[in-house]
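User: Could you go from structure to sequence for me? I need the amino acid at each position, not a summary. Structure tokens:
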């Protein structure tokens, strides 16, 4: 064994020249050092922006990444093949950011081991040069940190749960003290409802006896939701329930508005339901905004009208829930639209469709809505209007199409089939409107033929 030379002290502790005075064979010393540390050492080359090939791997490398040499050797042409996709993407972004020698990067990446388990690896990389083909070459150090990451994630999850619990406690306390709401408690055995108003200008306490009878005589809940409301309340009187419902109600005294009721059954030690308690919130603005966002997903991108299925569903819902004695269904089909596409091109055709649809939407305003039923077919649905109102809209729409015709120098218009809703099925309404529309279209063709002659 060699005696360590005193000249060792001439060099800093991290100076590699110290090895010359520690071992007679520096190279052999380094090999022993490498083979006895639990770190996978490797040399990679970047053969493509997203493919890494191994040029050198230490014996320890295989154990660190969870493989034996025989199985892993198949992967050396694509080292990151078993990485989780998002980690692989992040890893290559770091590698490609290295522009010169000695640039260093480090990341934590997940990769699947031979036994199928997911491992976490701390990868430290330093750029050491490039090949003759200008492929970047990296020296890498890979450490298995799976156990550390599991412990870290577990602690992180606990911390997040604690924080969430603390936030929820604070939120509950603040809500209970400050949220404007109508508090209630219903006693099923006595059929008594107690309301407590928790508003800045109203802290009234109201007791209603014979509440079931009250619901029948005083329908504060909209007729289309009353059955759902009763079913929810009385189910909570029979079995333990903790739930939330939304419905239209006049309970806030501002006409029918959307309300949310959060309620729960309250039991005694024998699991007998003593009461149902809860809060009623006015959520009209929230629900309307939510419905607006849902509607946006149902809009045809080109024309701004509802897509076919969405429009059909809205019409179907309206027929089921509303008074449709003064509602109208109008089928619209553009005349001579093919000529626009053939002579002017599809971009002109798209412009005509868009302008026609948006004008129809503007004219119908809040009285109804427009649906794009097919390529150049539309449906206008309106309610709570008179026949004169529809006639006025269609006249303005025909006049608008004349302006477009003059602009594009192609005669384009539309034919309509108007049906006033009654007790017909939606399928029958469609059929009748379609027949009426084609009848008008054929009349136009006949008139145009006579003019040409």
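Assistant: Here is the amino acid at each position, in order:
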């Amino acid at each position: 064994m060699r005696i360590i030379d005193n000249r060792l002290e001439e060099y800093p502790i991290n100076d590699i020249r110290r090895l010359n005075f520690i071992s007679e064979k520096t190279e052999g010393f380094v090999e022993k050092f490498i083979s006895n540390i639990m770190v996978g050492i490797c040399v990679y080359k970047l053969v493509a922006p997203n493919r890494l090939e191994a040029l050198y791997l230490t014996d320890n490398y295989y154990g660190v990444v969870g493989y034996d040499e025989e199985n892993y050797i198949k992967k050396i042409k694509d080292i990151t093949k078993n990485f989780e996709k998002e980690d692989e993407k992040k890893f290559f972004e770091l590698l490609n950011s290295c522009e010169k020698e000695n640039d260093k990067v480090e990341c934590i990446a997940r990769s699947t081991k031979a036994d199928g388990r997911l491992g976490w690896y701390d990868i430290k990389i330093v750029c050491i040069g490039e090949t003759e083909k200008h492929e970047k070459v990296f020296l890498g150090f890979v450490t298995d940190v799976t156990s550390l990451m599991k412990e870290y994630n577990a602690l992180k999850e606990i911390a997040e749960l604690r924080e969430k619990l603390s936030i929820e406690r604070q939120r509950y306390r603040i809500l209970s003290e400050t949220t404007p709401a109508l508090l209630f408690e219903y006693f099923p055995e006595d059929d008594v409802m107690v309301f407590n108003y928790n508003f800045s200008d109203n802290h009234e306490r109201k007791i209603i006896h014979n509440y079931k009878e009250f619901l029948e005589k005083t329908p504060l809940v909209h007729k289309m939701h009353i059955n759902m409301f009763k079913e929810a309340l009385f189910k909570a009187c029979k079995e333990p329930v903790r739930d939330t419902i939304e419905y239209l109600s006049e309970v806030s005294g501002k006409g029918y508005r959307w309300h949310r009721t959060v309620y729960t059954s309250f039991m005694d030690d024998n699991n007998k339901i003593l009461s149902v308690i809860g809060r009623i919130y006015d959520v009209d603005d929230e629900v309307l905004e939510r419905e607006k966002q849902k509607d946006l997903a149902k809009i045809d991108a080109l024309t701004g009208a509802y897509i076919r299925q969405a429009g059909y569903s809205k019409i179907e819902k309206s027929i089921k829930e509303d008074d449709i004695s003064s509602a109208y269904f109008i089928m619209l089909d553009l005349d001579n639209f093919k000529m626009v596409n053939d002579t002017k091109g599809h971009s002109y055709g798209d412009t005509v469709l868009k302008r026609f649809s948006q004008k129809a939407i503007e004219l119908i305003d809040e009285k109804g809505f427009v649906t794009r039923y097919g390529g150049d077919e539309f449906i206008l649905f309106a309610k709570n209007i008179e026949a004169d109102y529809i006639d006025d809209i269609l006249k303005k729409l025909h006049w608008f199409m004349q302006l477009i015709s003059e602009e594009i120098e192609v005669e384009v218009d539309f034919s309509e089939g108007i049906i006033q809703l009654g007790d017909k099925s939606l399928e029958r309404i469609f059929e009748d409107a379609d027949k009426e529309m084609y009848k008008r279209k054929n009349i136009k063709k006949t008139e145009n033929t006579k003019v040409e002659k």
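One structural detail worth keeping in mind: The longest strand covers residues 118-130.
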